[in-house]
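TL;DR need structure tokens for one chain.
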Amino acid sequence: MTQAKQTVIFFDLDGTLMVNPFDRAVWPVVLGEIAAKSGLDEGEIFKLLVAESAARQRDESSSPVLSMDWDDITQTIAARLGISLEAHVESLVRENVAISSILDNGADVLRELNARHRALVVATKGLAKYQIPVLAALGLMPLFAAALTPDTHHALKKHRAFFGDWPDRTRLQIMVGDMYDDDVQYPAGHGFKTVWKRPNLDSRLAAKDPFARALLYPYADNQAVQADAIIQSLQELPAVVRRLEQAVLGFSD
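>> reply
TL;DR here they are.
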């Protein structure tokens, strides 16, 4: 960075900033082929894929890259079922990037957040080969200073190593995302401020400001760490960032 940054804002992608082609164009093809060749229900096959990824993520000796490599995972499950899989996840993503979409006028939010003292950084659990083509197709790549994926730092998003030296070069680190474990629990453990995106709050919580929501939210028993703020839409994020900067840095733009 040529300009010293005070704040780094890490952005989750899927479900937070964008909708990728997986649900509409990747899984139907992959699951359909495996189901036709194995006789299993597509729902059961998807559970096998998710379970394989989760098992790899829990295994600290497993490669962080292979933990999120859906091509390897789908081929592994197909082999266990005794079939050959022709569908290729990366190719399907690239062929269908046009159906991706940006959530909450996210590009405008990123532009509003852009400031000399801030760095906006992608922090996604997905591999670069799946995520970068979508970001490029949506025109979002130029709005970020960097893109962190398991294959850029050879670590999963839950690990401090995933974030490289960004936390060492900034005074305030903010994680924005829709998943509790990856976007609230783990980053809070690294000392980051956390902004949890929860679009469908009940009317009582929706009427509160994002910081009050975080205090009043009915966390599950296994959710011991509270978010710093809860937003329903990215439209609320700039005001939240300014308040966090005022509290931590003593200024806002």
